[in-house]
Amino acid sequence: MREELKLENIRSNLIRLEETIIFSLIERAQFAQNKIIYRTNGIPIKNYSGSFMLYLLSGTEKLHAMVRRYTAPDEHPFTEVPKEQLLSPLAYEWPIKKTEININAEILETYIDKIIPLICKKEDDGNYGSSSVNDISTLQAFSKRIHYGKYVAEAKFQDSSLEYTKLIKASDSGAIMQRLTDKKVEEHLLERVSLKAQTYGQEPDVKNPVFKINPEIIKKIYADYIIPFTKKVELLYLLERTD
Questions:
Q1: Could you tell me if 106 and 229 are in contact, meaning their C-beta atoms sit under 8 angstroms apart?
Q2: Exposed e or buried b for every residue in 65-101, given b needs 16+ CB within 10 A?
Q3: Are 171 and 239 in contact (CB under 8 A)?
């Protein structure tokens, strides 16, 4: 098995991404919801019809695409990106099967409609640029973590290929999802995320802890969105998995 597919290496990467996500959420939570940045033409932009945040996201992704960001198996754009690149293509053998699976549209909608109201005050503080920049880094972290489910699925497939192949051929999504789910692992993950959120988000030197963002909210985001989305990617990947 390739190094990228060893479960200990996958687990290490996922744990590192937890910290990226927690810090990104803490940074975004310092600003208000600023709903106008998500509204089509809420902030008029010449020769563009869309939201302010999507305009910045699109521009960011175009630049990142030109330096090969979206040629990596765990990187997926939210917007349409150019094919031309400033750097020559790398000779790289993918450790997983190539697919077109990309659930960023669903991640984006959930982030704006569900997550922003959870972490931000229902106000407009005028910090539109800062809010959008933090949105972009948070969305990219979410996407990377969730689509890393392809690595998880491939590792699990290689570990139990006969069992998974039988279920895949039968298109038994329910049984595949049941096999992918490990409640003990998920509970441990949620407790670890909650502890990290308490540690990183707490103001120091106070008798009564004051958090920049409630750790239970970050735990809820993982439980209600990040874990289910990751398992959805795993399922979609396996349903397309063929030798």
A1: yes
A2: bbebbbeebbbbbbbebeeeeeeeeeeeeeebbeeeb
A3: yes
Residues 6+ away with beta carbon under 8 Å from 201: 22, 26, 211, 212, 213, 215, 218
| Non-local CB neighbours of 177 within 8 Å, separated by 6+ positions | 231, 235
Q: What is the pLDDT of residues 190-219, one digit of tens each?
A: 999 999 999 988 877 667 778 889 999 999
pLDDT digits (tens, 9 = 90+) for 13-62: 999 999 999 999 999 999 999 999 999 999 999 999 999 999 999 999 99
Q: What is the helix, strand, coil percentage profile of the chain, to 5?
A: 65, 0, 35
Q: 48 has which bridge partners?
A: 45
Q: Which of 55, 39, 38 is nearest to 47 (CA)?
A: 55
In this prediction the pTM is 0.94
Domains and CATH numbers, the chain: 3-240 (1.10.590.10)
